[in-house]
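Suppose you are handed a protein chain with no further information: no name, no annotation, nothing but its sequence. What can you learn? This example shows the usual starting point.
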Amino acid sequence: MGIYDINVKDMDGKDVPMSDFRGKAMLIVNTATGCGFTPQYDGLEDLYEKYHEKGFEILDFPCNQFGNQAPGSEEEIHNFCTGRYGITFPQFGKIDVNGPNESPLYSFLKNEKGGVLGDAIKWNFTKFLVDKDGRVIKRYASTDTPEKIEKDIAKLIA
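A reasonable first move is to predict its three-dimensional structure. Written in structure tokens, the prediction is:
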């Protein structure tokens, strides 16, 4: 099974096939609105604006598994992100990234690129870079800022 065989839910609970993103490089991020890393939304939006026209997508998956830092509804989270950070990249429905209810997308991502301390996602704003062929290229920790990983994105898009 590959990434394009997986379906995710949009903010309205409708299925979105990951195959909709075939041929595009992707940065997949589990996010939260009340996290110390939430200001990374600014950098993520900058990357999206800079590289979107070159075949780059950022996929935002809110996750409330870490410190109850994404407690709102999908609509509340979306309004916060667009209002405060002006994000224009796709946001999806809330997901679990670990445990018995973990999203198949995150099962796949973790299987492809486990973390240094094991496969579990440690916190919000863990990022996975996926190439245009659906291969997971790299996993980044929460502390890896969008600015720090831009060179990898630029190389992948080139």
